[in-house]
Write a structure and sequence with these properties.
single chain; Transferase(Phosphotransferase), domain 1; 3 domains; 32% helix; globular
């Protein structure tokens, strides 16, 4: 996942908005976009052009066509905003009045793409101490005309767009700044401030404090220290063929395909050296979205090492796009429980198992995203009575705090997932609670919910009313886990697990909608007695004062 330590700051020359603008965004945790513009002061609407340009790039990158690579995207978008500014200037003023410099930086995978128009600058600082200027100052060569721009956004219909690609690594620092910053400080002093790890505001304040007011211009600075890069981009762009058709007996890298495990024939049992494994391929050979999903799934599967999940790996010398998993023999929980509920002891064991599986994913910054009976395998314990469990379906795993509200199976989703809420520990606990409710009662607490339906969540029947074997403490745990109101639900896996291990500490759970007489009869009668006593006193007082 792409991770950056960021800071940006704009200090206007006067106590006003100024003509500089800058912004950045990280899209889908993988694509970084930063824009810095310095509106040309001699143009009437230089500041407006700068702000319009920054907003344009940030908005457009979020919806860019996936088929476009980054250089094409940068070129198309830059030519578009340049033409918009130029034509608006001509139509409104008949001369150039919407004019701004432009610095655009995009990080995808391990590559930094940069583009600039004008004299704002882009630098890259490496941990070895080197500060490189990646941009070119588009100004007149004459020392008396060095303030005159030869290229800028909105200056003319025809612009040259040299796009530079630079390999980057964790530890590098990306810097964008306007001429108002670098004109007031030499490179050596600037480098020293960067090496100290100062933020944008501290550096701008320091530089401006050492300058005379007459020498100052609007100052804008962005600093991004790279702490993590997205490894999936490199994996995705590795040239590996995806077979369109697969058949029994086919040999791929010494693995023999023996039988498909699904009707779509993209998951197979395979044999090698008398051992059986599972081989999974992308769902489509021609769909970029399917490839994206598969690369992410294979990456997550490889990170997961807990025994609650089957072991998965990606062979380094593979000649096709696939990954391998150990073969886990078992039956999914829904089929296992046909015509019978789960025993209480096994249900408690299942709850603890699901906690451990999710806690491991949380350690990796992930959540399962689709907890339900079909994704839980029931296996026989080795050498003893009873059963064990395994989680399956690496394809549903997502990063925690993702906002993909439709990921998962509707009947097991927390209410907030239907309205764009993030996936977190609480929403996953809801899915665990629904799974336990169904396993012990045979019904879903909120009924069957169809895809794309926006359901209502009325207070469900308590599971103990459907299965009298359920102890009251477990009944309360399940009801708290499936509470429609997140404020009444467990917020963290640890809270849920603690109560599963300590039944004597579990407090009875009642929804706020339940009448007080049901939630706490003693409190209800105590309040009733006090109110009645007050009425008696008032009545007595009125009687004696007549």
């Amino acid at each position: 996942m792409l991770q950056l330590q960021s800071s940006q700051f704009i200090l206007p020359k006067l106590d006003c908005i100024g003509d500089d603008a800058c912004a950045f965004t990280i899209i889908d945790n993988t694509l970084f976009v930063s824009v810095l513009c310095d509106g040309v002061g001699s143009a009437k609407r230089g500041g407006s052009a700068a702000r319009q340009c920054v907003k344009f790039f940030i908005d457009q990158f979020k919806t860019r066509p996936k088929a476009w690579d980054i250089p094409k995207t940068m070129e198309v978008f830059t030519r578009h905003i340049n033409n918009l500014l130029f034509k608006e200037s001509m139509s409104q003023y008949e001369k150039i009045e919407l004019l701004t410099t432009l610095c655009l930086a995009v990080i995808e995978g391990e590559t930094l793409y940069t583009l600039n128009l004008g004299d704002s600058r882009i630098y890259l600082y490496s941990p070895e101490g080197e500060l490189r200027q990646l941009s070119t100052d588009h100004t007149m060569d004459d020392e008396y005309m060095s303030h005159v721009l030869t290229q800028a956004c909105g200056l003319s219909e025809n612009i040259d767009l040299p796009i530079l690609s630079t390999h980057i690594a964790v530890g590098d620092t990306l810097i964008l700044c306007s001429d108002g910053v670098y004109n007031l400080i030499d490179n050596v002093s600037f480098l020293e401030l960067i090496q100290k790890g100062l933020g944008a505001k501290s550096i701008v304040t320091h530089v401006s404090g050492n300058a005379l007011p007459k020498d100052r211009d609007d100052m804008s600075l962005q600093i991004f220290r790279i702490e993590g890069l997205d490894p999936l981009h490199t994996i995705k762009n590795t040239l590996l063929p995806i077979p369109k058709l697969l058949h029994e007996g086919q040999i791929i890298d010494a693995y023999t395909l023996t039988s498909p495990l699904m009707k779509h024939r993209r998951i197979w049992k395979v044999r090698k050296d008398y051992e059986t494994f599972v081989m999974k391929f992308p769902m489509s050979a021609d769909d970029p979205d399917a490839l994206d999903a598969f690369v992410r799934e294979a990456w997550y599967a490889k990170q997961v090492t807990h025994k609650a999940f089957g072991h998965a790996w990606v062979p380094e010398d593979r000649t096709m796009r696939y990954y391998l998993m150990e073969l886990v023999e078992g039956i999914n929980l829904r089929d296992y429980l046909k015509n019978r509920p789960l025993s209480i002891d096994t249900a408690i064991a299942l709850g603890k198992f699901l906690h451990k599986a999710e806690a491991h994913l949380l350690h990796l910054g992930l959540t399962h995203g689709d907890i339900k009976p079909e994704n839980i395998l029931v296996t026989k314990k080795v050498g003893e009575a009873g059963v064990d469990f395994k989680m399956v379906d690496f394809g549903s795993i997502v990063e925690i705090f993702s906002s993909n509200s439709r990921a998962g199976t509707p009947s097991y989703l927390a209410p907030e997932r239907f309205t764009g809420g993030i996936i977190n520990e609480s929403t996953e606990i809801f899915s665990i609670g629904v799974t336990l409710y169904w396993a012990l009662t045979g019904v879903l607490p909120y009924g069957e919910i169809e895809p794309f339906q926006t359901p209502t969540f009325k207070t469900p029947k308590r599971p103990v009313k459907l299965n009298s074997n359920i102890p009251l403490w477990l009944d309360s745990i399940i009801m708290r886990a499936i509470a429609a109101d997140p404020s009444e639900r467990y917020a963290h896996y640890s809270e849920f697990f603690y109560e599963l291990k300590a039944p004597e500490k579990v407090k009875p759970y009642f929804s706020k909608e339940v009448p007080l007489i049901e939630r706490s009869p003693a409190t209800f009668y105590k309040i009733g007695f006090i109110l009645l006593f007050i009425v008696e006193i008032i009545t007595f007082y009125l009687y004696v004062t007549k």
